[in-house]
Specification:
The complex is a heterodimer of chains A (about 210) and B (about 200).
Chain A: H1 3-9, H2 19-27, H3 29-46, H4 55-68, H5 73-83, H6 93-118, H7 136-141, H8 144-152, H9 157-180, H10 185-209
Helix pairs in contact in A: 6-10, 8-10, 9-10
Chain B: H1 3-9, H2 14-22, H3 26-48, H4 51-67, H5 78-96, H6 111-114, H7 132-140, H8 144-155, H9 160-167, H10 171-198
Helix pairs in contact in B: 1-3, 2-3, 3-4, 3-5, 4-5, 5-9, 7-10, 8-10, 9-10
The chains are: A mainly alpha (about 210), B mainly alpha (about 200).
Chain lengths: ~210, ~200
């Protein structure tokens, strides 16, 4: 094998050589030096490390992605997390359930108010006994969200229960006020706020216990 | 801990991050960026030898990729796709700036030109005498076409079939470009060493 022939096959060599090439390398110092140099360049190149770009590169990319509408964080993050947690496959039902509870509560309230108005003439004492209303503690102990919180984040159970109890007490008081003052807008507003707060407590608890 | 770090900490697979990015998940985009940023940025930096340009091209490559992520079907590796973007962005910008780019198809350079000996070239072997600064400097002096193939193969560790996909050439062409890049580097390193030796 000549030097020209060796150099012609050099680009195809990936570490190994055949007998003919080995023989040529033993007898030709120029080709042996050439091969040694090329191997040294390759080995040193592998030692060159990667470098870190500055944080502004990601900041610029993120800004551009948001501007283009490619990042849709809040809802999709929630849906994605839900889809990737098998135990929480039906967790998306919780806010719907909360909204349903809220809606049903409003319907009941309006039905009670209209009933109250219809019988207003016959009622001599408008004050309703608080004992006739549902006690908050009864509904809290049966709250499905409490069970979920207790299963997924036991440490949060106490604070969640406390929040829910406060909200239920607020609903209780607001319902009482609305019954006693059916035509009072402020009482109606309090009741609406109370139901909204319960929906919010449900939603916050769900966010916290989701992985 | 940011969301992306959490993704990495939880060892969410690249495939899952891609699926989530397709749905517009910000954390998934960030995780993909952090997984590949160093390699892409280093490639851009060595291709341009300029920090500001390297950042600009890294940003452009990732943005192009993220804008098309919905079309990614997984036929090739994600990193191959990303590096193809990066190489295309860099080569296009270098062409725009009027810098000479050796075409990716076979060059007209003859074997005699390739193997031209520099002064002092036959003296001593390079092995053991190459330092990092010299090598980085020599790489920066390669023509961009050679440089891209050399960086992808010898620095980043891609195989020739992957490089062929990234730069859009044949496997044989990739091997040929790599060999010529190494030969040119050898000349540059020996010239640099000879110049250093003659300095008082």
């Amino acid at each position: 094998m000549t030097c020209e022939e060796f150099e012609r096959v050099l680009p195809e060599l990936e570490g190994g050589h055949n007998l003919e090439q080995e023989e040529h390398l033993r007898t030709c110092s120029a080709c042996a030096d050439l091969l040694s140099d090329l191997n040294a360049i390759e080995q040193n190149a592998r030692l060159l490390g990667d470098q870190e770009p500055s944080p502004r590169v990601w900041n610029n990319i993120e800004t551009a992605l948001r501007r283009d509408g490619l990042i849709r964080q809040p809802q999709l993050q929630l849906v994605s997390a839900t889809l990737h947690a098998p135990r929480w496959r039906f967790a998306w039902l919780v806010p719907i359930a909360a909204a349903l509870v809220y809606g049903v509560g409003l319907l009941i309230m309006h039905w009670q108010v209209s009933t109250q108005v219809a019988h207003q003439g016959r009622i001599t004492n408008p004050v309703v006994e608080s004992s006739t209303l549902q006690s908050p503690s009864v509904s809290i102990s049966e709250d499905p969200m409490i069970k979920l919180v207790a299963d997924e984040a036991p440490g949060m159970r106490a604070s969640y229960e406390s929040n829910l109890r406060a909200v239920e007490a607020y609903i209780h008081d607001a319902e009482l006020a609305a019954r006693n003052n059916p035509n009072d807008e402020i009482s109606q507003q309090h009741l609406t706020n109370a139901y909204e707060q319960r929906a919010m407590v449900y939603e916050m608890a769900m966010h916290r216990v989701l992985p | 801990m940011t969301g992306a770090r959490k993704l990495q900490g939880d060892k969410v697979s690249e495939a899952e991050a891609i699926q989530r990015a397709k749905q517009g998940d910000a954390e998934a985009f960030e995780a993909l960026y952090h997984l590949h940023k160093r390699r892409v940025y280093s490639l851009c930096l060595r291709m341009t030898a300029n920090t500001a340009s390297a950042e600009e091209f890294t940003q452009e490559a990732f943005l192009q990729l993220f804008r098309k992520i919905g079309t990614f079907r997984g036929e090739s590796a994600f990193s191959t796709w990303l590096h193809r973007m990066a190489v295309n962005v860099v080569l296009m910008q270098l062409r725009k700036k009027g810098l000479p780019v050796v075409p990716l198809e076979e060059t007209l350079e003859t074997d005699e030109e390739t193997h031209k000996k520099e002064p002092g070239a036959d003296d001593v072997r390079l092995a053991g005498s190459i330092d990092r600064i010299q090598l980085e400097h020599a790489i920066a002096n390669l023509p961009p076409g050679y440089r891209a193939v050399f960086l992808l193969h010898d620095v980043e560790g891609y195989e020739h079939n992957e490089i062929a996909k990234i730069v859009g050439c044949s496997i044989g062409n990739s091997k040929s470009q790599l060999h010529k890049a190494r030969m040119r580097l050898r000349d540059l390193l020996k010239t640099s060493r000879a110049e250093k030796a003659t300095k008082p």
